[in-house]
């Protein structure tokens, strides 16, 4: 299987998907699985699709919460940050790392 075939299968499963969403799903799925041919079966593709959906939703939720925290921090003087606020910044870096991991397919960076 190649990316074009995977894209066609995704379009069959989700005919209303925009081309950028199909491309994004192809990228996420191929980064998730070691061998793209493992997605040739309907059950395998559905399982990988569900798993990626859960991971992406979790990362998106974490990103939204982190964005709210960072907006509050942005209104403060960095010289007056408390230890908790520094930890908020570190968590934000970890969340960004998780999202990047989904898209580039590399192992997470240890912080």
What percent strand? under 5%
The shape is elongated
Calculate Rg over CA atoms: 18 Å
Number of strands: 0
Number of separate domains: 1
Biggest beta sheet attributes:
none
The span between the termini is 36 Å
* Helical run tally: 4
How would you classify the quaternary structure?
Answer: single chain
Structural class: mainly alpha
Report the average pLDDT across residues: 85
Q: What is the share of helical residues? A: over 70%
- Order of SSEs: HHHH
Low-confidence stretches: none
Structure description:
The protein has one domain. The model has no long low-confidence stretch (mean pLDDT 85). With 111 residues, it is an all-alpha fold. The protein has helices at 3-13, 19-32, 42-74, 83-104.
Brief description of this entry?
By secondary structure, the chain is mostly helical. The protein has one domain.
Write the layout of secondary structure elements.
Elements: H1 3-13, H2 19-32, H3 42-74, H4 83-104
Helix pairs in contact: 1-2, 3-4
Overview features:
111 residues; mainly alpha
